[in-house]
């Protein structure tokens, strides 16, 4: 059976549907189960059934679910995860992977409130843990840094919406008020988004999320799941 991570981030692969059933805080896509929010993955199994004389029944699969993380002020109670994610006023460096929330979309840039700075550098996405910022840090993704190709065709409003959670990399310390970020890699971009109806969506391609309730799709610059 696949080993679950101690801490899952939105969009992270948890395991195949042949091994687990999806539970709260997860979603099913292309026969795989992914995290829908940040938290601790847990599994629950059905009690064993009494043997019968009928033909052998297939074993029931455990259900994987995710409990939402407590507020950042409670990170001291995270147990083993506190060794990997700490609550501090860390400052990002060039090359750091960060997680943040889109706070404003404009024609030429997206404003981001950075809440987690990953320790991994240059593509090491969180294997070494990260740091939860005590205070949100401001960053921007400029239009030319959204993707690596056809930059002149990028429409910022089609790639991001206010409230989206995204994964980005710091490319410059920027100006006095903002760090410059990029999402110009397959594994960077939106990792969690809600539809216009307020439902948590799941990715169906590199440029679309789907609302599991209404069935509608919305465009995003989607980060490739782990």
Q: How would you characterize the overall build of this protein?
A:
By secondary structure, the chain is mainly beta. The protein contains one helix and 16 strands. The strands form four sheets. A five-stranded mixed β-barrel has the order 8-9-10-12-11. The protein is globular, with a radius of gyration of 19 Å. The model is unreliable at 71-86 and 121-128 (pLDDT under 50).
Beta-strand content estimate: 35-45%
Biggest sheet: strands, sense, closure? 5 strands, mixed, barrel
Spell out the helices and strands N to C. Answer: EEEEEEEEEEHEEEEEE
Shape: globular
Secondary structure tally: strands: 16
Helix content: under 10%
Gyration radius from CA atoms, angstroms: 19 Å
Instruction: Please count the helical segments.
Output: 1
How would you write the strand order of the largest sheet? Answer: 8-9-10-12-11
Give the averaged pLDDT, no decimals.
Answer: 80
First-to-last CA distance: 18 Å
Given as residue ranges, the uncertain stretches (5+ residues, pLDDT < 50) are: 71-86, 121-128
Structure class: mainly beta
Topology:
Layout: E1 13-16, E2 21-22, E3 26-29, E4 32-35, E5 39-44, E6 63-68, E7 85-88, E8 96-105, E9 109-121, E10 130-142, H1 156-159, E11 165-172, E12 179-182, E13 189-192, E14 202-205, E15 208-210, E16 217-219
Parallel strand pairs: 2-6, 7-10, 10-12
Antiparallel strand pairs: 1-4, 3-4, 5-6, 8-9, 8-11, 9-10, 11-12, 11-13, 14-15, 15-16
């Amino acid at each position: 059976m696949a080993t679950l991570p101690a801490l899952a981030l939105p969009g992270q692969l948890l395991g195949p549907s042949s091994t687990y059933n999806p539970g709260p805080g997860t979603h099913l896509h292309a026969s795989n189960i992914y995290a829908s929010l940040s938290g601790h993955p847990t599994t629950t199994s059905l009690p064993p059934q009494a043997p019968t004389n009928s033909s052998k029944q297939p074993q029931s699969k455990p259900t994987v679910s995710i409990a939402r993380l407590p507020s950042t002020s409670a990170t001291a109670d995270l147990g083993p995860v506190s060794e990997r994610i700490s609550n501090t006023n860390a400052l990002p460096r060039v090359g750091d992977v960060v997680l943040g929330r889109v706070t404003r979309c404009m024609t030429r840039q997206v404003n981001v409130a950075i809440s987690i700075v990953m320790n991994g550098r240059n593509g090491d996405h969180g294997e070494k843990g990260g740091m939860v910022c005590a205070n949100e840090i401001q960053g921007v993704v400029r239009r030319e840094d959204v993707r690596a190709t056809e930059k002149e065709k990028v429409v910022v409003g089609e790639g991001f919406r206010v409230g989206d959670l995204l994964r980005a990399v710091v490319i410059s310390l920027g100006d006095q008020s903002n760090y410059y970020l990029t999402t110009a890699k397959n594994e960077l971009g939106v990792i969690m988004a809600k539809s216009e109806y307020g439902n948590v969506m799941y990715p169906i391609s590199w440029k679309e999320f789907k609302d599991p309730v209404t069935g509608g799709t919305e465009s995003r610059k989607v980060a490739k799941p782990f």
